[in-house]
Amino acid sequence: MKPIGLLMREHRLIERMIALLKAELSNIAETGKIDDHFLDTIIDFFRTYADRCHHGKEEDILFRELGTKPLLAEHKAMMDGLIEDHVLARNTIERLYGAKQSYMAHQVPLSDVTDCMEIITQLYPEHIEKEDKHFFFPSLQYLSPREQDAMLSEFREFDGKFEIYEKIIKAREGK
Q1: How many other β-carbons are positioned within 10 Å of the β-carbon of residue 5?
Q2: Integer CA distances (angstroms), 90 to 28, 30, 52, 110, in order
Q3: What is the DSSP letter of 2?
Q4: How far apart are CA 134 and CA 91, in angstroms?
Q5: Read out DSSP for 20-76?
Q6: What is the 3-state secondary structure (H, E, C) of 51-65?
Q7: What single-letter DSSP state applies at residue 171?
Q8: What is the mean pLDDT of the segment spanning 21-46?
Q9: Which pLDDT score is estimated for 78?
Q10: 79 with 71: CB under 8 angstroms?
Q11: What single-letter DSSP state applies at residue 80?
Q12: Would you kindly state where each structural domain of the chain is located, as residue ranges?
């Protein structure tokens, strides 16, 4: 397996959570109420799995290694844009957490919560498409097979800590 294969597999799990998030947005639109327990799960998933695990692998390993290479300007610009997306996602999840807390204390309208949720449902699919279809495969040209193998080993060190999230998503999907 190539290191990007592992990242792309993680994308599939993130996409499944996005689908659940969209379903929750529909439920909120119908009922006018949030499932605060599930919203806590969403926030935890994006903080821990999407950001620490997945973005951690990208930023702390893949992008670190690519940063030592003479990237074409278009690949460097794309990598910088992907990092900006990570920052936006991180900040939006923190805004979602604050909005949820404030909404539960009757201090802000429900739209503060749903606006953050909508940003996440729009950002991640676009971000994943950029990585899967436009960045990951070209990035391999900068890494030798030995470097790719070392990267894959480093990626796998992260994985054991985050298996719980697939179980959480399966349970919510009813599988």
Answers
A1: 12
A2: 23, 28, 10, 20
A3: -
A4: 24
A5: HHHHHHHHHHHHS---HHHHHHHHHIIIIIIIIIIIHHIIIIIHHHHTTS---HHHH
A6: HHHHHHHHHHHHHHH
A7: H
A8: 96
A9: 98
A10: yes
A11: H
A12: 3-173
Question: Look-up: residue for tokens 């290694």?
Answer: 65
Output the average pLDDT for the chain: 94
Tell me, which fold does domain 3-173 have in CATH?
Four Helix Bundle (Hemerythrin (Met), subunit A) (1.20.120)
- For 43, residues 6+ apart whose C-beta sits below 8 A from its C-beta are 93, 96, 97, 100
Average pLDDT over residues 100-111: 96
**Cβ–Cβ < 8 Å for 10, 145:** no
- 10 Å CB burial of residue 37 (0-12, 13-18, 19+) is exposed
Number of residues in the chain: 175
The rounded distance, in Å, linking the Cα atoms of 30 and 63 is: 42
Q: Is the pLDDT of residue 160 over 80?
A: no
Residues 113, 151: Cα–Cα separation, whole Å? 37
Token readout for 133 is: 């279809």
Q: How far is CA 149 from CA 87, 98, 154, 161, in A?
A: 28, 40, 9, 21
Q: Which long-range contacts (CB under 8 A, 24 or more apart) does 35-38 make?
A: 36/100, 36/104, 38/172
Q: How far is CA 88 from CA 75, 84, 85, 96, in A?
A: 20, 6, 5, 12
